[in-house]
Backbone:
């Protein structure tokens, strides 16, 4: 536990155990998209099946419309239907959600991680999503060795006085140089 009361969500040893050079995907695949508007952040596209996950794209790309084309190509290449595409809809991500939905003539999932969740154990969707991801990894989910996964080692959580799990805020990570 650090001085702010946060504990690591995953350890290096846990992450090292799940890396794989090659993945055999099975089950219905999903695509997750984190949209960055520039600066130090990366726009990232991840494909996940029941058996594993891999980073398909990770670049500092401020051109959100080119990101739409990238997501469309990956969704076609992997046979992912619009209802299985999840896009960060905060800020510049809203435009990506709208344009993908227009191009696919079907709604993709707009994700706002600040929203509350029905599970009373978590502060918000961000905390639940990170927690679920860590549990998936610990139960045998595999990660194709790609740049970017090491950022998971920076994720920390704490249990607040109201017993809800909270992830370290993004601005706190940035303050720490992450």
Residues:
């Amino acid at each position: 536990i650090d001085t702010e009361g946060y504990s690591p969500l995953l350890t290096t040893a846990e992450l090292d155990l799940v890396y794989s050079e090659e993945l055999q995907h099975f089950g219905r695949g999903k695509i997750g998209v984190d949209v960055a508007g520039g600066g130090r952040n990366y726009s990232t596209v991840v494909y996940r099946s029941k058996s594993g996950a891999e980073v398909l794209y990770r670049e500092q790309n401020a051109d959100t419309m080119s990101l739409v084309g990238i997501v469309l190509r990956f969704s076609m290449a992997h046979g992912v239907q619009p209802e299985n595409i999840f896009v960060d809809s905060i800020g510049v991500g809203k435009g990506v959600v709208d344009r993908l939905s227009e191009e696919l003539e079907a709604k993709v999932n707009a994700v706002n991680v600040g929203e509350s969740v029905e599970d009373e154990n978590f502060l918000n969707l961000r905390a639940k999503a990170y927690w679920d991801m860590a549990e998936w990894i610990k139960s045998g989910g595999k990660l194709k060795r790609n740049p970017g996964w090491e950022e998971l080692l920076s994720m920390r959580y704490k249990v607040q006085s109201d017993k809800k799990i909270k992830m370290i805020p993004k601005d706190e990570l940035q303050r720490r140089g992450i």
